[in-house]
Amino acid sequence: MSSIQEEAQKRARATIENSWREIAETYTVAWMGPIEAVEVTFDHIRDAIGDIRRNVSRDLPSIIYQTRESPPKHMSVAVPYILGGDPYKCRVVSTNALTNNERVLLGEFAQALWFMIDSKILPSPRRGKAFEERLVELTGQHLIRL
Q1: For residue 90, what are the β-bridge partners?
Q2: 16: Cβ contacts below 8 Å, ≥ 6 apart
Q3: Domain range list for the chain
Q4: Is 109 helix (H, G, I), strand (E, B) or coil?
Q5: Are strands 27-32 and 86-94 parallel, antiparallel or unpaired?
Q6: Apex CA 91: angle with CA 22 and CA 120, to 5°?
Q7: Cα-flanking dihedrals φ and ψ of residue 72, to 5°?
Q8: pLDDT, tens digit (0-9, with 9 covering 90-100), for 67-94
Q9: Structure pTM?
Q10: Around Cβ 136, how many Cβ atoms within 10 Å?
Q11: Phi and psi of 66, rounded to 5°?
Q12: Which residue in 3, 17, 25, 99 has its CB near the most CB atoms, within 10 A?
């Protein structure tokens, strides 16, 4: 593995480890794919991703952020898409207005997850519980549980 790849993996891990607590203060995190399933479940994103729809990744999951009430009052979806050779572009679609800092935080967290999945540091979410278990090892249960 090249030193550039190793450095990118360290940065992705650091992004997750340094931001998950801040995210977990407000949100629980889940994942879903393919994009057709995401659109059926969260129909408000359909129009917001119309211009990137054909570029949405088939291999990476959308990352779902829901506020910590039951039922959640607000939610955001980080949608992965490919543009200009960058396989980790991110469109954050939300049911409420996000500050720029929130949008960056949620987007960078999702991009780090996608990179770690692509790099095989995290297993594919399609492998059942393996992804969840490994993510909890990096972050803690509080990120994905009410």
Answers
A1: 80
A2: 109, 112, 113, 116, 138, 139
A3: 3-143
A4: helix
A5: unpaired
A6: 70
A7: -65, 145
A8: 999 999 999 999 999 999 899 999 999 9
A9: 0.95
A10: 15
A11: -120, 140
A12: 17
Residue in 41, 77, 76, 74 with CA at minimum distance from that of residue 56: 77
Instruction: Report the number of secondary-structure helices (H) and strands (E) in the chain.
Output: 5, 4
What are the two backbone dihedrals, phi and then psi, of residue 41, each rounded to the nearest 5 degrees? -75, -40
Phi, psi of 94 (to 5 degrees): -130, 155
CB-based contacts of 15, cutoff 8 Å, min separation 6: 108, 109, 111, 112
Residue 35 and residue 141: Cα distance in Å, rounded? Answer: 26
Q: What is the pLDDT of residue 128?
A: 79
AA identity, residue 44: H
Name the stretches of the chain with pLDDT < 70: 1
Which residue do the tokens 């949100």 mark?
Answer: 27
DSSP labels, 70-83: SS-S-EEEEEEEEE
